[in-house]
Amino acid sequence: EKGGYDYFMLKEIAEQPKAVADTLLGRIDASGSLTLDEVRIPAGELREVDKVVVVACGTAFHAGLIAKYAIEHWTRIPCEVELASEFRYRDPILDGRSLVIAISQSGETMDTLMALRHAREQGSKVLAICNTNGSTIPRESDAVLYTHAGPEVAVASTKAFLTQLVACYLVALYLGQVRGTKWGDEIGAVIRDLSQISGEVERVLETMEPVRALARSLASKNTVLFLGRHVGYPVALEGALKLKELAYMHAEGFAAGELKHGPIALIEDDLPVVVVVPSPRGRSVLHDKIVSNIQEIRARGARTIVIAEEGDEAVVPYADHLIRIPATPTLLQPLVATVPLQVFACELATARGNEVDQPRNLAKSVTVE
Ligand code: F6R
Q: Annotated Gene Ontology MF terms (predicted)?
């Protein structure tokens, strides 16, 4: 059942190109437009939406953080992302023009379910992004966009995360398409890029051996830090979460711009710091900023593990270890940048003798508070 792999997690990491392709299947028509028939919220209502609120937990929350960048850029609708466990216990401001997106692999997470119930009581429409057919969250939502990752058995989420990202991009692009934003041309181009992306994920998987070797060499470390900017920031958070749950190591993700507001004090000799570098094309300011961040931490002794696009030569002098990923549009980069972090955490966990598929103290589906 593990298909020749030692762990379900390895199998599920390897299944990601297919999971991504399956989640796109049938949702882009021959003319390059999106056909999301499942989103049964009428176009007229979607045009009236004046706020999007994403609620989720854990890895799904990280997908939501990335969705915010995409939704606000492509639709210009303000978007908030909140941990479901926080959202449900405050008094969020919602009404009939708010669209709430609940992201959940299992469809049974109690906090996410309670958050969506609260949203519906306020008259908001709820769209679920979910991987489990007929589970509670989609049943209680107004509409559901299923991720087609297939069953995810390992407790640590991998392929579900990538498909949640794909679903978030589809929703963001669909909202842009329905509302006719000024990014019309860009939306068409991104849809084309998205339809190629599964091949890029495959290419990343083919180059993971050095990442595994690096992970093994760090097995006796206590702490690993992760830095990113823009969509690379949630990727850093996801990399840190994977390492905590699998390797039981102290791992933290930071927005690189926050370094000098505190975290840089943590940098000491030979501390491994993983940096997710945005594309040097497009928003190149971001890229230049992060190159200076890498220089800053390296000058203070950090061992820099740099994840950067192929052809990005500016990072080379400052990278103790360089992990290459294919060039993608900035907003789609998390689909390729997350994969090495999953492999890294999985290999570190194995090297430390941990149970990869069943980390201590964790359950696959959190149906209690
Ligand atoms: C992390 C992980 C958890 C889940 C979280 C939400 O690897 O698996 O953080 O992402 O418990 O679960 P779902 O998506 O089922 O609501």
A: carbohydrate derivative binding; glutamine-fructose-6-phosphate transaminase (isomerizing) activity
